[in-house]
Fold:
Amino acid sequence: MFAIGSVVGPAPYPEMVGYFQSVIGHEAREQFLKATGKLPNKVVACVGGGSNAMGMFSGFMDDESVEKVGVEPAG
Structure:
């Protein structure tokens, strides 16, 4: 049973979350390329539980020219 959205816990949870969230990054990459004809210079994602960052960065992992920035909100 998949019960958490963070990239934590025993296997296979981190791999499952990464796979499910990867749709976000791949879709963002495709849409950005379609809209601009190039890749972004930088991609920014929240790193709180890791799922947002893992999802967004997954679409750009093989693109060395794209800077990946993880941010953590304070509060």
About this structure: The chain has a mean pLDDT of 90. The chain has two helices and two strands. The radius of gyration is 13 Å. The first helix runs from residue 13 to 36.
